[in-house]
Design brief:
The complex is a heterodimer of chains A (400) and B (190). Chain A contains 11 helices and 17 strands. Chain A has helices spanning 38-46, 82-91, 93-96, 124-136, 147-150, 199-202, 212-219, 230-240, 243-311, 316-326, 352-361, and strands spanning 4-9, 13-20, 23-31, 58-63, 68-73, 104-106, 110-113, 116-123, 140-146, 159-164, 167-174, 177-183, 228-229, 332-338, 342-349, 365-379, 382-393. In chain A, the strands form 4 sheets. Chain A has a 6-stranded mixed sheet. In chain A, strands 5, 6, 7 and 8 form a 4-stranded antiparallel sheet that branches. The longest helix of chain A has 69 residues, at 243-311. In chain B, 53% of the residues lie in helices and 23% in strands. Chain B has 4 helices and 4 strands; from the N terminus they run αααββαββ. In chain B, β1 and β2 (122-133) form a beta hairpin. The chains are: A alpha+beta (400), B alpha+beta (190). At the A-B interface, α9, α10 and β14 of A face α1, α2, α4 and β3 of B.
Chain lengths: 400, 190
């Protein structure tokens, strides 16, 4: 299993433990000197621990009450969405925690009820220093927790008074779940028995409880309540130094803009080239096809011309035969005239209406009507009526 | 002496001016080129699609053309022979004269007409004629013209009986005026 490292940053000292499979491998403590940065102190402290380079040790850092304020927050909006509450606390950290001019980094809110929950605010410079130190030492920093939370995993007593420099915090917990955290005056635990620590930690002897914060950090799981996870830390870190990211983003935006501007142009050219290739490949067959189409149009037009000419044909002979067959025996045709619109006949008949009737019955003829006067004449001793009847051709399809 | 801040400002200024120049000159050119390329691609695409369509229907067109060519060749007997429209009109006159002669109809004046259209494959040739004959002869002549192999259209026909009261002992003499048209192949100029 991967080695786990727990680092506890207190007001006056830094402690560290290395654990593998719940066995304590190493523990150490170094005082914090005013002239030595925190990162250097951590590096110097961990030097004798012989940490493996691979896999990189999984590390959780616990920060003591001097640098981490833990509060049960009330008065938040009565919502049960921990993410929303976390965002609210992060954006209004100064309203919930003492700032004292120092930027704060807040943890996710551990909900206890809608609108209520535990949250912690670390001093951001400490967080940054811790993150830098872990980066330099090739430690895989997974999170930062307040010491008052990590000690609950190391000390079995339900009530713990924890010292950090000139501060003391009283922690009440039940099976590791915080119930109360409050600051108490120094010395309020005078006379109390030594806290009962976890079995693995007990190997360190009487002073084992002093490493409870570091050991608790080492065995803390990712996502434990009040843990500021590493991506949150890195996000805060990047805010202060975004230049290379800005450069990458700018370059990406420029490349994107150039691509957006030129991609349609290139796509159009590729499409155009492909179309021209197709046209070239089909050119010969297309020329033949177009010649055929042109020839077909010409031949069709010629056929249509002949068909149209043929449609104009009307058999004048058939009309004359039909008409003479229908006229009474005693009648005579004097004149018969047809043209493209119709025609007229001049006839001598016993009665003029016989001629009109004959024309009405003749196929291909419509609207026969008498034009001009009907006169009586004596032909070979018989009285006959001379009549002129005009008619029109029936539209195509009406005549049988 | 210039500080690093001055240098940064100078660099930034140069970059901004360069960007402005590129933006002012390059962007319109790029937009124009893009527009032209898109239009060209669209036109090429349409042309390629037309080519593909033409090729796709080529076989069907070829089959139709073959069939219509056969029908076109079958038109030959319907048309009036003649190297020129006037020649075809003479053929028409000969046809009418032949029909009249074989029907016992006496042909009078003949007037040939040639219609020269601006376009088309055929030319209409016509003829106006006077004739005299009995009813049987006139009917036979008309039948010969209408049913003959050539495609002829009687445009106008006037048959008159000048003496409707004449007795049966006199020969019937109907006067006929006819306008008849046929088609001939238009040669040249198509």
């Amino acid at each position: 299993m991967t080695m786990r490292v727990g680092i506890a940053v207190a007001a006056d000292a830094v402690r560290a433990v290395c654990v593998r499979d719940d066995h304590l491998l190493w523990a150490g403590e170094a005082p914090l000197a005013a002239d030595l940065p925190l990162a250097a102190t951590i590096a110097r402290l961990l030097q004798p621990a012989n940490l493996p380079r691979w896999p990189r040790p999984r590390t959780v850092v616990a920060i003591g009450p001097a640098g981490a304020q833990v509060k049960h927050l009330e008065g938040l909006p009565p919502i049960a969405n921990a993410q929303s509450l976390t965002r609210i606390v992060e954006e209004n950290a100064g309203r919930f925690f003492l700032r004292n001019g120092i930027p704060l980094a807040t943890t996710p809110v551990a909900l206890t009820a809608p609108g209520e929950g535990w949250a912690c605010a670390f001093e951001a410079p400490i967080v940054r220093e811790v993150a830098e130190a872990c980066q330099r030492l090739k430690l895989r920093l997974v999170g930062i927790s307040p010491a008052v939370a990590t000690i609950t995993a190391s000390i079995r007593s339900p009530r713990i008074v924890w010292h950090d420099g000139d501060l003391a915090a009283e922690v009440t917990h039940r099976d590791g779940a915080l119930e109360q955290v409050r600051r108490v005056p120094i010395g309020s635990e005078a006379g109390a028995a030594t806290p009962e620590v976890a079995v693995a930690l007990a190997e360190l002897g009487d002073e084992a409880w002093r490493f409870a914060d570091a050991y608790g950090a080492a065995v803390a799981r990712v996502g434990s309540p009040l843990m500021l996870e590493v991506h949150g830390i890195m996000a805060r870190e990047t805010r202060g130094n975004p230049r290379w990211r800005l450069a990458v983003a700018g370059a990406a935006a420029a490349i994107g803009a150039i691509a957006a501007a030129t991609a349609p142009l290139l796509a159009a050219r590729i499409e155009s080239a492909s179309a021209r290739r197709s046209i070239a490949e089909l050119a010969e067959r297309r020329a033949i096809a177009m010649r055929s189409e042109s020839d077909l149009r010409r031949v069709t037009a010629a056929l249509n011309e002949v068909a149209a000419f043929d449609r104009q044909r009307r058999s004048v002979l058939a009309l004359l035969s039909d008409l003479t067959a229908r006229l009474p025996e005693t009648s005579q045709l004097v004149a018969y005239r047809v043209d493209s619109a119709g025609g007229n006949v001049v006839a001598l008949a016993a009665r003029a209406t016989d001629v009109v009737s004959a024309l009405e019955e003749t196929p291909g003829v419509v609207s026969p009507e008498i034009v001009g006067p009907v006169t009586r004449e004596s032909i070979a001793g018989r009285e006959k009526e001379r009549v002129t009847v005009r008619f029109r051709w029936a539209p195509r399809g009406e005549s049988p | 002496m210039t500080s690093s801040r001055d240098r940064r400002v100078l660099t930034l200024g140069v970059v901004v001016i360069a960007l402005l120049v590129i933006g002012a000159r390059g962007v319109p050119s790029l937009l124009r080129a893009r527009h032209d390329a898109l239009a060209s691609a669209r036109e090429d695409g349409i042309e390629a699609e037309r080519a593909r369509s033409s090729v796709a229907v080529a076989q069907a067109v070829s089959d139709s053309l073959r069939a219509r060519n056969r029908r076109y060749l079958a038109l030959a007997p319907l048309l009036l022979d003649g190297e020129t429209p006037a020649g075809a009109a003479s053929t028409l006159a000969a046809l009418v004269s032949g029909a009249a002669a074989s029907s016992g109809v006496r042909l009078g004046s003949v007037q040939l007409q040639v219609d020269t259209p601006a376009q088309g494959s055929f030319t209409k040739v016509g003829m106006r004629a006077d004739a005299t004959g009995d009813i049987d002869g006139v009917m036979e002549m008309l039948a010969a013209l209408e049913r003959g192999p050539e495609l002829l259209v009687v445009r106008e026909l006037l048959i008159t009986q000048p003496e409707p009261g004449a007795g049966d002992d006199r020969a019937e003499a109907l006067r006929v005026e006819i306008v008849i048209e046929g088609l001939t192949m238009r040669r040249g100029g198509r």
